[in-house]
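Holo prediction — fe (ii) ion.
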Amino acid sequence: MRCESETFLVYLLNMEKRNEKMSKTAVKIIAVLAAILLLLGIIAAFLLTPRRSPGYADDTWEGQKSFDINEITTLSKEPGKDFKILAITDLQFDNPFKSKNQVKADLAKMVNYVDPDLIVTVGDNFAGIFNHFHVKSFVKLMDDLGVPWAPIYGNHERDFSADLVYLGQQMQKSDLCLFEIGPTNIDGVGNYIININEGDEIVASLVMMDCNEEVIQRDAGGNRVGAYYESPRHSQVAWYRDNINAITEHAGRVVPSILFTHTPLPEFKTAYDLYQQGSNEVTYIGGEGEVGGGLIDYGLFDAALELGSTKHMFFGHEHTNTLSLRYQGIDLSYAVKTGNFSTYRDGKTGGTAITISDGGAITYEQLYTAEMQG
Ligand SMILES: [Fe+2]
């Protein structure tokens, strides 16, 4: 028989072996968990890291002398036939947890109804931390419609400091996309012009302007105290003047133009307030909604008044707003919010049909897909 001290020694030895075995198992488990965490970290970094453009050539704007009519994208209008534009806005494509079927069906319905020569997107085309992926889904969505499309940016393309040049270059891979990075020494990305021509004659110009980013207001301690949305800035207004003046000179007359920018100008709010007061300075055209409008006036509306070319301005951004007011001879309108991504008003989503007729006459119609046949 073993003595008690021998039994205790064996017990200790066994316990030591068990501990050794357990600690080896624990090390293995920790190593596997660490490897899984590392792999998840690499995948997260790959998914979340905003993509950066490898670079692009400087396109310096030096006033009206930089204008070259041959560098402007031109689309053809047949004499006697209307040129039709479908304006869509605020798709905020494409939340991976939401079905794309509704927005695809809405777009198909509107394209079928309008039969557009061009689709203009009035910003916030995609949104979120994955914009470098959303842009590719957006390009496919647009290309599948089989119509040339001209986008501008809103505030949401900038989400999580996305690189607007990178996003633009992804869109430019599409043969149907007319997006241009635009001059690199003025504010914003994607300021460009499209001319609608009958032969060599410019019938109308489309002025596509970036709205710049949301401005966060902070106190002395760096705490957020407010925010406001921007509009095209002084450098862009100068670029607008240069282009409109040069087109006027080239054509020998003032050519009608349509301005597209995402956030409504401060003058839309002025017009809305006057309209609410019953002022006869404003004419109600249609739609409904309370105008937010920009906070800072950089002079774009005044430049349009002075030059006399732009009589129609279309905005997005305020998803439930479909209002259209005429103020000082300029129609200020919201393009109707498109699709069911992000906030929307039931029965009031769709787009806006804009028609350019012979002589550059411009008319438009708000489209609500819930009211459309087919
Ligand atoms: Fe917006």
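READOUT: The radius of gyration is 28 Å.
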